[in-house]
Specification:
Blueprint: E1 2-6, H1 15-23, E2 27-32, E3 45-48, H2 63-84, E4 91-95, H3 104-107, E5 113-116, H4 140-147, H5 149-157, E6 160-163, H6 166-170, E7 180-182, E8 199-201, E9 207-209, E10 214-221, H7 228-241, E11 246-252, H8 267-274, E12 284-288, H9 292-300, E13 304-307, H10 316-323, E14 328-331, H11 334-337, E15 347-349, H12 354-365, H13 373-385, H14 388-404
Helix pairs in contact: 7-8, 7-12, 10-13
Length: 410
């Protein structure tokens, strides 16, 4: 069968699916803005598209809609060329967030389209306004209503929709729910597993292992959406009470979500300035973005892993930490509460509350049975609900089979 995938940042959420489809002999074409991505997949045809620049003179409410339209038109232009060459997909699949799928049905009206829908924005009850330190702007309701234009246009364009968690589904208007499948991308629990022998070497020659007391924190970027400011404010109390503890912080200094700091370039600089003189910086290690093997080692040697988030998209990193058998202290926010039950497969704390976070980290570190049942339960949760080979990928392939009309399993 012929599959057409579209995601501006190859391979995005489709890494596992396209690897499988190409391996078993299907034809996969992938349209992306990142043709030089280093995640090469044998047998896959990757084609770059380039949207024209967005004009400067545009109302800021319309910025996302304008960019989405330009992405969608650029993708459609590539598809028209492919059509003239005789290419016709059996199924089209793409992430809706950047407008790339808007005009696929204009090129191939009769080909089914599966859209990936990640987040529907709200002025209340989700990420906006959940953190009193960053109150919403007066016009956020109007701005977000326009930001949802791409969501709504994509929902009307797609024949079916996919989202990874029940909470993310519930953010979308109820009238669309019957056309959604909740299927997570999957966590490879065969690759990600506990390893008591894990060790990580840091710059300067220091090595860390399970013999050390290590608090880990990981995010794509160190920013308030993932609770970085709350975590940093908890550290003075934690380090005072646990004099042997070290802190391993994984993540970049950019901004993936939300606002940039106004006084300096990174949130790390903001927090280090705020906490100057209160932190033992010799015990705090900012390691940036690690290669995957080293990232897994960090999880496997962790004594306590901290995961914090606004009510927003659930990170893969939480499930990866659970698969690695981490003891997790996490924010009691809706996307997390869908996965973690306090005291069963992890520990929950109010968000944002640095003092509560510090006390819970100290409590968990003081557990006389560090290889507790909580670690086992965390991994078992992933295996039962999110494991790639036995749960997520089979469900996803079955959805593709139904939408494409294939008579036998893919």
């Amino acid at each position: 069968m012929n599959f057409l995938f579209v995601h501006q940042n190859f391979p995005g959420q489709y890494r596992h699916a396209v690897r499988y489809l190409t391996r078993v002999g299907h034809s996969v074409t992938f349209l992306t803005q990142g043709p030089n991505a280093n995640d090469a997949i044998p047998g896959l045809r990757k084609i770059a598209y380039r949207p024209p620049p967005r004009p400067a003179a545009i109302h800021h409410y319309l910025a996302d809609l304008e960019s989405g339209m330009r992405n969608g038109l650029a993708v459609a232009e590539v598809c028209e060329r492919l059509k003239k060459e005789g290419f016709r997909p059996d199924l089209m699949i793409g992430h809706n967030g950047w407008g790339e799928i808007l005009y696929l049905k204009d090129v191939w009206p009769s080909v089914p389209l599966l859209g990936y829908f990640e987040f529907f924005f709200h002025a209340m009850g989700a990420d906006v306004g959940c953190d009193p330190e960053f109150p919403p702007a007066a016009d956020d309701g109007m701005r977000l209503r326009m930001r949802n234009a791409l969501n709504l246009l994509g929902l009307e364009a797609a024949d079916w929709a996919q989202t990874p968690t029940e909470w993310q589904l519930k953010q979308y208007p109820r009238r669309y729910w019957p056309r959604f499948s909740v299927i997570h991308e999957g966590i490879d629990a065969r690759l990600i597993h506990p390893d008591p022998s894990a060790r990580l070497w840091l710059e300067g020659g220091l090595s860390l292992s399970r013999e050390d007391e290590v608090i880990t924190y990981s995010a794509r970027n160190l920013e308030p959406y993932r609770g970085f400011h709350v975590f940093m404010r908890a550290l003075p109390e934690v380090l005072k009470r646990r004099p042997q503890a070290r802190v391993l912080i994984v993540g970049g200094d950019g901004v993936s979500y939300g606002r940039r700091p106004s006084q300096t370039s990174t949130w790390r600089q903001v927090m280090l300035a705020e906490l100057e003189g209160k932190l033992d910086l010799e015990r705090i290690h900012f390691v940036g973005r690690l290669g995957y093997e080293h990232y897994l080692a960090a999880l496997q040697l962790s004594s306590v892993h901290v995961y914090l988030t606004y009510p927003f998209v659930l990170s893969w990193s939480l499930l990866e930490a659970m698969a690695a058998g981490c003891r997790i202290v996490a924010s009691a926010t809706p996307p997390v509460e869908e996965v973690i039950k306090d005291g069963d497969n992890g520990y929950l704390v109010p968000f944002p509350d640095p003092q509560a976070l510090a006390l819970r980290i100290v409590e968990v570190l003081g557990d006389p049975h560090p290889q507790s049942a909580v670690r086992t339960a965390a991994r078992e949760t992933v295996i039962a609900r999110y494991e790639l080979a036995t749960v997520a990928l089979p469900a996803y392939l079955d959805l593709l089979r139904k939408l494409s009309g294939a008579r036998k399993p893919l």
